[in-house]
Amino acid sequence: MAAARWLGAAAGLGGRFCRTMLKDHNLRTQQSFHHLAPKKPFLPPAVWHNAVRGMFIQTQDTPNPNSLKFIPGKEVLESRTMEFSTPAAAFCSPLARQLFKIEGVKSIFFGPDFITITKESEDLDWNLLKPDIYATIMDFFASGLPVVTEEAPRTDTAASEDDDEVVLMIKELLDTRIRPTVQEDGGDVIYKGFEDGIVQLKLQGSCTSCPSSIITLKNGIQNMLQFYIPEVEGVEQVVDDDDDVEKEANST
């Protein structure tokens, strides 16, 4: 049934990938890659309102129980995303630096209009973390400071003159059909390379340590890429050096 739903997106499509992108638009906007994994019953997002600052902040659960999506009702990073896995990585963001000062915050992810916070462990109670996170976000936006103060790194999904036809199609499919859906769950997926038929991807935000990340890659992203692009034989998740160091530390 899951495969049928994914393949159904191609009904009535003609030509190759670039002429298929506008078809079956509702598949992207209504279906989440995490639909194949068990999820908790939907609950209306919580809303925090501070009358003094005049700001509403909504919270939304993600498929990762250790990650929570905060929606401030204001633009965060326009159309791009940024992830901060350590306090040192937050040198270019005053907001991320302030959030890292909250005890229990493990990593921070900025989307176009949301902030995903990942806590250090399941033992930490979100009800204890939320007040400090709410206050930090509200104080920051009230200050008028920019979310990032230096030029953000170029995302690897951006087209390059060195990209061949297959890589360009992979990147376009990621940007137009896959990343927006993953971002709805408080995460993102970044292109890292294509070699010997294997697309290398990095998961960010709530997807980084999500129990259903493998299902997201295999049953969601891989199936869609393989359908539209025959040259794709599979996908694999890659991690940065900082992630490798963190995993080794956690295993000792």
Strand and helix map with partners:
Elements: H1 2-7, H2 25-30, E1 46-50, E2 55-61, E3 67-71, E4 82-84, H3 94-100, E5 105-110, E6 115-119, H4 126-143, H5 165-184, E7 187-195, E8 198-205, H6 213-228, E9 234-237, H7 241-251
Parallel strand pairs: 8-9
Antiparallel strand pairs: 1-2, 2-3, 3-6, 4-5, 5-6, 7-8
Helix pairs in contact: 3-4
Provide a descriptive summary of the structure in words:
The chain is α+β, with helices and mostly antiparallel strands and 252 residues long. It has helices at residues 2-7, 25-30, 94-100, 126-143, 165-184, 213-228, 241-251, and strands at residues 46-50, 55-61, 67-71, 82-84, 105-110, 115-119, 187-195, 198-205, 234-237. The strands form 2 sheets. A 6-stranded antiparallel β-sheet has the order 1-2-3-6-5-4, covered by helices on one side. Strands 7-8-9 form a 3-stranded mixed β-sheet. Strand 7 (187-195) and strand 8 form a beta hairpin. Helix 3 (94-100) packs antiparallel against helix 4. The chain is globular, with a radius of gyration of 19 Å. It starts with a helix and ends with a helix.
